[in-house]
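request received
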Amino acid sequence: MSNDDEEMVVTPWTVKGKVDYDRLIELFGTERITPELKERMYEVAGEKHFMLDRDLFFSHRDLGWILDEYDKGNKFTLYTGRGPSGQVHIGHLVPWIFTKWMQEKFKARLYFQITNDEKYFFEQDLSLDQVRKLAYDNILDILAVGFEPEDTYVLQDIEHIDLMYEIAVRVAKRVTFSTARAVFGFENSMNIGGIWFPAMQAVPAFIHSWVYGTNTPCIIPCAIDQDPHWRVTRDVAERLGFLKPASIQNRFLPPLTGGSKMSSSEPMSAVLTTDTPKMAKKKVMNAFTGGRDSADEQKRLGANPDVCSVFKYYEFLFMPDDKDLADIEKKCRGGEILCGECKQILAPMMIEFLDKHQAAREDVKDRIHEFSAGRLREDLKR
Amino acid sequence: MSNDDEEMVVTPWTVKGKVDYDRLIELFGTERITPELKERMYEVAGEKHFMLDRDLFFSHRDLGWILDEYDKGNKFTLYTGRGPSGQVHIGHLVPWIFTKWMQEKFKARLYFQITNDEKYFFEQDLSLDQVRKLAYDNILDILAVGFEPEDTYVLQDIEHIDLMYEIAVRVAKRVTFSTARAVFGFENSMNIGGIWFPAMQAVPAFIHSWVYGTNTPCIIPCAIDQDPHWRVTRDVAERLGFLKPASIQNRFLPPLTGGSKMSSSEPMSAVLTTDTPKMAKKKVMNAFTGGRDSADEQKRLGANPDVCSVFKYYEFLFMPDDKDLADIEKKCRGGEILCGECKQILAPMMIEFLDKHQAAREDVKDRIHEFSAGRLREDLKR
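response:
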């Protein structure tokens, strides 16, 4: 079901309406990723990345500065995160896959924040036990993406609060309720934990410099809806003696049911990482496409990949090779392929992807501790 | 200088105007400590305590219930605290001395919270380094009162956040900004740390039951201005599966300069625990009294101990024996003693008290760790 008629609302907790990415750049005051910036990334990486090339990552703050610093030998840290309020779906993996690429190519340490406190504060009906179970489950998905253990630090807010609280306290003193309300739209009915939380979300941007007494740049790959957090973080950074974190922001992988952003809470809108092959196939076969009303019409007039969720899956994940993507697009527009046939191509790709991902999930189960930010405690003591 | 003409305002962060304690009981919805309740306390203790007998502790919540539970064999914990925003003065010691008596007589474990995060949030110009220095210094004063190490757990919010955050998170989810604003008078200019803080102040009321998996009653001896915190704490307690904390509340020792509450920030208004004998004597000799304009007049008409800060010192601290107090009161009202003479009696008492207190402060310096709430970590693991 499409929700494109609603007015656009994009905050860290709500995405509604048709998302106009150009308008978001204006609204949020971020910058478009230019061809020059892409080239600079590729030069360091020694290869292109289709997510950058296709403008799936499309917006940034201070990416040029991050690359300048890198060129000078001043390496950056990566910071991204996950709020464990539900199961992970395929769309969540998009920024993580790109983050892994950046980790590998730039030899960067990654801080991966699990905001278990946030989800407890913001989801009325979620207990802490439920959040903990979801966090464990989500961490399996994160690690299944293949991050380097020695360069990956999973920070769980409640479990690692001893490493985080003092930084959060310093941030919190410098953010008024007025500011928080203006940036996040908090009402007076918001609980005092939710109001506090933006201070916690700032912490991983600073924790490396804090622990090691350095002045290390940080870049945050994330979906664009999280940008308001970094505005607050950037506002306070210098007053705390830290560098402003940069960011690089991606579009949402649209729901299989049409509309703007997938949701784990609408069962058919997203393929979950733990779906069975049968369920995954069912979701793909039921997906919203840009097809015509009849096969005859489609053969005659062609279909529209621009609004098709199946095509988005190819673009975002399953056809990293531009030739493959161009080929399927041509067939689609030319009426050479029907939507049912196209879905029959995606379904086995999806099933294979899930199969590998699920094996990797199993594989990391006894290695979670290797990624724990608890390791920072030893470094803090030194 | 008296500030009695202002309208009364009593919150955890502001005390202004002449404090009307009867009105506070009404406003806050607490209860007066009855002669029956005093008797029950004395029965257990095997002795009276002048602070209770003289209604310096005058108000409570659920004290009867605490004693009922005690009689049934269900012991309580004590919880009090200190916000380290300045040096400790003699007035701060009043509730601590009474708390020590309760600890001893009821064999109760004491949780003593040092709210270093609070003072950083609420004092614009205070750095965390300054708060830390003050906290260390204040802890010396606390321990100099003579609490039992094996039954005293000093909880510092930032240092012991790993023991406190999860409880605070559970509290915070259940307190809206509307409630916090109504109870504490927060403006929109309040920082998000200050708004969060009431959740932290609730924690020591629950931490014992949390760590040991018990259902242990808790009573909070404190100055009456802190009561709004416990209203919030009591409101959420049962929803979190904890017992509501009881409380027993004291009046303020008035400033030497007249008015309602002493302040470390007005130098002559309070004797600091670290004052030299010379400084202490100077403050006493300059104190506001209920004396007449001339010696002749005073000898003829007598003076008024009801408004005299010197007399309050006798009442609150230096004349625990009622006969001594009655004697000085009679002399004062009868004009048998002039204020200067009366101050000459107080000054050496004050100096002797400070001398002992300062020696005790030195004495605890290398034993602070024995009182640390960090010991709870071991118990949590079990």
